[in-house]
Design brief:
With about 210 residues, the protein is an alpha/beta fold. It has helices at about 20-30, 35-45, 50-65, 70-90, 95-105, 120-125, 145-155, 170-180, 205-210, and strands spanning about 5-10, 110-115, 135-140, 160-165, 180-185, 195. It has two domains: about 5-15 and about 95-210, HAD superfamily/HAD-like (Rossmann fold); about 20-90, DNA polymerase, domain 1 (Orthogonal Bundle). The chain has nine helices and six strands; from the N terminus they run E-H-H-H-H-H-E-H-E-H-E-H-E-E-H. Strand 2, helix 6 and strand 3 form a beta-alpha-beta unit.
């Protein structure tokens, strides 16, 4: 069956922003000490694609030994957004993504499905002049699998005709849960039997063979 829809994560797939987010997690955790910072960074790297607010909650519960309050969560979220905003304005695109977007706009519906907060996600893509490529831009909440399932349902497609492109296990797991195809990006997903590239320079040809 031919591909009929393309869905992209944002960080590490559209924008080369994973290092930006990693630096921001380090800064928000720094006041709690080096061990707390390092444990949060390890959790963040293992759980790419998970909402930052879930990561803050994990830090408080598993490192600090108590439940995060709504005010603490909001404060950490505001600090995190402040730390990343300027860098997101100028960080490079992942190699190959511009060619994919230019090549398939108007030929297949394109969507963004990200763990970043919805408002921030839309603002960044608007600022970068990328929002016009997409039929829909969806951030968190809800979880990524729920967003991907919504896209498939609203497009009236067989999940097998949809491709999810992601750089984290949460992206791969969402594709498996929903039943879509999956293309992995970056070293975390290297290996195994999924189609994969260090960047997206090979994705155009891969899609072209299946669309």
């Amino acid at each position: 069956m031919a591909l009929q829809c393309l869905v992209f994560d944002c960080d590490g797939v559209i924008l080369d922003s994973v290092p930006v987010k990693t630096r921001a997690f380090a800064r928000v955790a720094e006041p709690f000490g080096a061990e707390a910072r390092d444990r949060l960074l390890m959790y963040h790297k293992i759980h790419g694609g998970v909402s930052r607010y879930q990561k803050f909650a994990w830090l408080y519960e598993h490192v600090l030994g108590r439940t995060i309050t709504p005010e603490e969560s909001r404060r950490m979220g505001a600090l995190f957004a402040e730390y990343v905003w300027e860098e997101l304005r100028v960080c490079p695109l992942i190699p190959g993504i511009q060619e994919v977007l230019d090549g398939w706009r108007g030929r297949l519906p394109l969507f963004v499905c990200s763990g970043a907060p919805q408002e921030e996600l839309v603002s960044v893509l608007q600022l970068r002049g990328l929002d016009g490529y997409f039929s829909g831009i969806y951030g968190s909440p809800p979880a990524k699998a729920a967003v991907l399932a919504r896209i498939v349902r609203e497009q009236g497609l067989d999940p097998a005709d949809v491709l999810m492109v992601g750089d984290a296990p949460t992206d791969r797991d969402a594709a498996e849960d929903v039943g879509t195809q999956f293309y992995g990006v970056g070293s975390i997903l290297q290996g195994g039997d999924i189609p994969w590239g260090q960047d997206l320079t090979g994705l155009n040809a891969w899609i072209g063979a299946r669309a």
